Amino acid sequence: MGILDFTIKRALPAAAATSITAWAGITTANDDWDDYFFTSSSSNTSAPSPTTSDKEEKIVILGSGWAALNALRKCASAQKSVVIVSPRPHFLYTPLLASSSVGTITLRSACEPLRALVESAASKATSATFVRADAREIDVHNKKVYATTDSDGMGLELSYDKLVIAVGAQPNTFGIPGVQEHGLFLKEAEDSAKLHAKLLSNLEKAAALSHQGNKYATEIDRLLKVVVVGGGPTGVELCAELADFKNHDVVKRYGTDISDRIQIILVEAMPRILMPFDESLANVAKEHLVSKGVEVRTGCGVTYVEGQDVTMQPSTPRTATAEQKAEAASKAKSEEVGALVWVAGIGARPLVKKLAKQLGQTDMRGLKVDETLKVEGTNDVYAIGDCALSGSPPTAQVAAQQGKHIGRALRDGIDSPFKYNHMGSLICLGSNNGMAQFPDSGKFNVWDAIGASNLGANANDQRGLTGLPAFVIWRSTYWTKLLSTSSRLSLASDWVKAKLHGRDVVEPVLKRAATLKAPVESFGTELKRNNTIRLVKNVGAIATDPVAAANDGEKKKKRFWL
What we know:
Elements: H1 3-29, E1 57-62, H2 66-75, E2 80-86, E3 90-92, H3 97-100, H4 107-110, E4 111-113, H5 114-122, E5 127-132, E6 134-139, E7 144-148, E8 155-159, E9 162-165, E10 170-171, H6 179-182, E11 184-185, H7 189-209, H8 217-223, E12 225-229, H9 233-254, H10 256-259, E13 263-268, H11 279-291, E14 294-298, E15 300-306, E16 309-314, H12 322-330, E17 333-336, E18 339-342, E19 346-347, H13 350-358, E20 367-368, E21 381-383, E22 388-389, H14 396-412, E23 425-430, E24 433-439, H15 446-449, E25 453-454, E26 462-467, H16 468-480, H17 485-501, H18 539-544, H19 546-555
Parallel strand pairs: 1-2, 1-9, 2-5, 9-21, 11-18, 12-13, 12-18, 13-14, 20-22
Antiparallel strand pairs: 3-4, 6-7, 7-8, 10-19, 15-16, 16-17, 23-24, 24-26, 25-26
């Protein structure tokens, strides 16, 4: 059999079958078959469906995260006019923020242009529009949303038939002085860029100062100390990425004199890290971080931040007595740090707090919803994702499922109870290591085949998996969750480049400053007439009559500007 014959008869059919199988697997895992074969999400055929009505229904979705975009994809159908309102012009793939903060991937791979997703929805709906604005107020009685295009307050008024609030949450500093002003966060794309720039800037400063011997030893140690506050999945993944960056890329590009002085400190107020995971798995993660050079401080909290100084002390429970609090305060210590990264929790956004107050809620952590995710005390207003008090954890997995549920409900015109299906928890520990915890079905499944251990009855019949298999599952799962083929190719390319050539150490330009004093000439002198450059018509005249040439040249001089 020749090469051409083999390609046509064997290779191409095998490649096609593999591609179809992969597509089917991704579609099944993401619960997206109704994108291709539409069927009503409810068996109730007695309720009227807007899809068969002549009236066009206007749906306004606030937000551009997991919940909002999944709601958009599912509700886009005939007789639906959908408007997405968000100050952020992209969908951010939040599980990849830790990787982009150290240059493992580019931010482009973690962001999806919102208009491309809206354009796709517009092909199914009557219309789909993106409005880049920040929602400021909601009038639930007159069904209007008031938004501004910028901080100057140029207002927009948007009416709706159905409103979906999916604005997510913002970092919660718990009122600790100085955190908001001096801390770095990891919630938005710009947060990742700021952290990446800060890390690289500090490395360059430390490398420059190291040429003076021990003269600036104290300052170098400060610059190279990174404190991460929050021992949840985000904090642990960031510390793992920082440790890999230190042990591989900093060693290679800055030398061991710099890499050996980097300190990575993970601070958690609770008795242990990774509270959502089983304790045995959390201990494995802690041991792995320590083995990579990360200092883990549990039962410790930040109480005050002032510039480069961070004050920490033993944490106390809410029920602590005055004596216990005084004892903890007496053990407070201050440290100078180069970067403080705050990933210690989330809180409600101002829009959510304002609406909750209008509705008479006493709990300001989010919007109370019923079993169908409709906001209590309203008509035709739904809240999903991190801004909803639904009883489910504030995770991307919950937000995505709620978004699809509401999208289908709006598409079919039928409200139905939401039921969260927990698929498991994943975390990347770096260095080709990961950790996974999955529900145990009680029967033989794939977790038996790959050696996932049973965590026992105390973990509600959960299976645990660590090491390379969990790392592969983490990467493949999140890769399939990306919303476009372009993003999947970009992410895969970044992973390959980081493996072959190391992480990106080009410092992000956050605010472009003037590099020249205006006005200046191209060679850096102040702008003035250039006496060395003349425009001459008659070269011969200059050669024969220097005085005439000088006079002629004086008249014909030109100014050269940058």
